[in-house]
Amino acid sequence: MPFIQQANVKNDEGKKVRVSKIMPTLKLGSIVSLQRNDVDYVVTEYGVAWVFIIMIKRIPLFKEL
């Protein structure tokens, strides 16, 4: 499975190359947003969280008309 949204850019010769957006650290207060369907696990320096099941439990069992 690829990491979320790797960027494709063109080099000087016009060929597509992939550029990693993975960073070792983020600045304090940085915002990271992803679509709910793209995330199963969140990994930080504090551990791993399986968030898929949490998000399913928050989906209402009914639809408002």
Secondary structure blueprint with pairings:
Layout: E1 7-10, E2 16-19, E3 41-44, E4 47-50, H1 52-58
Antiparallel strand pairs: 1-2, 3-4
GO molecular function, one term: hydrolase activity
Pfam families: AcetylCoA_hyd_C
Domain Acetyl-CoA hydrolase/transferase C-terminal: 15-52
Characterize the structure shown.
The protein has 65 residues and is an alpha+beta fold. The protein has a domain of 31 residues. The chain has one helix and four strands; from the N terminus they run E-E-E-E-H. The strands form two sheets. A two-stranded antiparallel ribbon has the order 1-2. A two-stranded antiparallel sheet has the order 3-4. The longest helix has 7 residues. The radius of gyration is 17 Å and the shape is elongated.
Strand content: 15-25%
The total of helices stands at 1
Count the E strands: 4
Order of helices and strands: EEEEH
Strand neighbour order, sheet with most strands = 1-2
Please, what is the average pLDDT?
A: 71
Report low-confidence residues grouped into runs of 5 or more. Answer: none
- Rg, rounded, reads 17 Å
Helix content: 10-25%
Question: From the helix content, strand content and strand pairing, which structural class follows?
Answer: alpha+beta
The span between the termini is 38 Å
- Main sheet specs: 2 strands, antiparallel
**Which term fits the overall shape?**
elongated
InterPro entries: AcetylCoA_hyd_C, AcetylCoA_hyd_C_sf
Pfam families: AcetylCoA_hyd_C
Protein name: Acetyl-CoA hydrolase
Keywords: Hydrolase
